[in-house]
Fold these 2 entries.
Entry 1:
Amino acid sequence: SQQGEEDPQALSIQEGENATMNCSYKTSINNLQWYRQNSGRGLVHLILIRSNEREKHSGRLRVTLDTSKKSSSLLITASRAADTASYFCATGGGSNYKLTFGKGTLLTVNP
Amino acid sequence: NAGVMQNPRHLVRRRGQEARLRCSPMKGHSHVYWYRQLPEEGLKFMVYLQKENIIDESGMPKERFSAEFPKEGPSILRIQQVVRGDSAAYFCASSPAKDNPFEKLFFGSGTQLSVL
């Protein structure tokens, strides 16, 4: 299984602080993706990092990938209350179309 | 360009009834995926379809569950003789045929199925 597992399960911070979430997986991957889910809604794709990349930025998001440790991290800088959501990593892509999601990290940003 | 549309948003069924969940992919998307999410869990892959073809249904229970994506109309996930354990949020996602279709999925808002 390529299941990703996020850590921590829940994270509570103040507005303006940075939030870091981690994801570990078990087998080789083609890419790793991060999604956000607001309560009661579908998932929204945030960013994709390929297995040959080590770091990627998109706005206030920074994703790193360490294939030797089979882990990834998602950093949200200068967090806002609107960032409150669950964040999931998903592995797969390429010839493996069955994205495998972890259980997610519930991020709460307090105003 | 409307997103992935799922209906109904909420569906209540009694044990033994049938549940039909509908999904209209984004315009121009020909790949449809169904996922199930239990409380406090991540999404679990159920089935992958293209127009008129089931590509992979390995994540779907062998009995009572079926899916289709006809040439015309939405994709349908059908659950016959529902049981309480079927209660979950069911999400549909779609992706375009061009480039690598599996690198970014667009999700609907889901159907929350409650079985009484």
Entry 2:
Amino acid sequence: DSGVTQTPKHLITATGQRVTLRCSPRSGDLSVYWYQQSLDQGLQFLIQYYNGEERAKGNILERFSAQQFPDLHSELNLSSLELGDSALYFCASSVGDRVNSPLHFGNGTRLTVT
Amino acid sequence: AQSVTQPDIHITVSEGASLELRCNYSYGATPYLFWYVQSPGQGLQLLLKYFSGDTLVQGIKGFEAEFKRSQSSFNLRKPSVHWSDAAEYFCAVGVGTYKYIFGTGTRLKVLA
């Protein structure tokens, strides 16, 4: 058990809808990362927050947004969903905000857009 | 350009055989190096990491990896594979200040 909690585990929704994925980091970790994993794209970095502030942005679509709250949990909001958004979405946390802090991953949220 | 290459998409080994998974990276400086394992339905679990010092690092579950600067490689090894090692393995590098780059993964199948 990594200590990172993601909810829900599965989400099935229709095109055009909006969903929110939630992540609680390991106790003591200040950084939260969001990744998208799909068969054709592999593991793609979306965005990183550190202690409530955005630190780095990756290949995140404008339809997607995220935030980290004062209690350090994070939410990833996906809107105007398309079939191609179907994927496994992972949250990871680390103690620091730099690459010398290993990432600890949650078990992911599997999103299916129909 | 910064990149991570795992040349083998699939590898099949017999239980008890040795294992080596390859990882090559492209980066102008020495990166932080990681290996992760992903079992079905699970998130990625850190196996080991290399930051500096001894180029042979030991990890969990009997895995080790060797950093070779001249070859820009960080190959993962295990002397004797167990059926429970069947999973997908990801090499990752930390470059710059904030950026992690993951390889596309190698799926390991273990024959009984």
